[in-house]
Specification:
The protein is an alpha/beta fold and 215 residues long. The protein is built from five helices and 14 strands.
């Protein structure tokens, strides 16, 4: 069981991709205008949250009739619609005694640079989130992990701590062993996964990972 969030960013996903992201039993949250896109893709929505200045009136009425919970907030608020959704997800989990294994975000990248950067900044706090564009996945890690089934994809690491210590990369075109990488370094950009299973090991650090499918 996971949460899926539709935000009001760029949408160039194919319908089959979106249908593959949203599975039966997932809980779907829309940030204001993100509901317009959920509507286009024919997605059942559980919550619409925000100041509701971007949602199409037809979409608003449709989801109200379908029983979606609509939470309207004052436009002069201290949080973005995305942050309001993340707060609501936390409350949802506490109320039901559950934990979403993953939170997938569509429309969280592009269109507005300020919103994109703010969204990515939240990865460090909400560590189980993954952002999707049509050809990229973006997520956060602060400990060793492996990836399976990503052979052929481009792989980049963006350090968000002062350094990444003892970094070892196995299963990549450009391997690395026990290297210390400073935050300002660009040597971790545009690697390529060459194995069906690859590993990213490090002793200490905080990173944002970007996976990009070759088109």
């Amino acid at each position: 069981m996971k949460a899926v969030i539709f935000l009001n960013g760029e949408y160039d996903y194919k319908r089959e991709f979106v249908n593959g992201i949203v599975n039966k039993g997932d809980v779907v949250f829309c940030g204001d205008g993100g509901a317009n896109y959920a509507y286009i893709y024919g997605i059942k929505v559980d919550y619409v949250i925000g100041d509701l200045d971007s949602i199409n009136p037809i979409v608003y009425d449709y989801y109200k009739i379908k029983g979606s919970k609509v939470e309207k907030h004052n436009p002069e608020k201290d949080y973005t619609d995305f942050e309001l959704i993340l707060h609501r997800i936390k409350e949802y989990q506490e109320e039901r005694g559950i934990i979403f294994e993953d939170v997938y975000i569509l429309g969280g990248l592009g269109k507005r640079l300020d919103m994109t950067l703010n969204n990515l900044h939240l990865l460090e706090e909400y560590k189980n989130m993954t952002f999707f564009s049509c050809d990229e996945e973006v997520f956060y890690r602060e400990s060793t992990f492996t990836l399976k089934g990503k052979k052929g994809q481009e792989f980049s690491i963006i350090p968000v701590s002062d350094s990444v210590e003892g970094l070892t990369l196995r299963g990549f075109k450009y391997s690395l062993y026990a290297a210390d990488i400073e935050r300002k370094s660009s040597k971790l950009v545009s690697n390529i996964i060459v194995s069906d299973e690859c590993s990213i090991d490090f002793i200490r650090g905080k990173i944002i990972v970007i996976l990009r499918k070759k088109i």
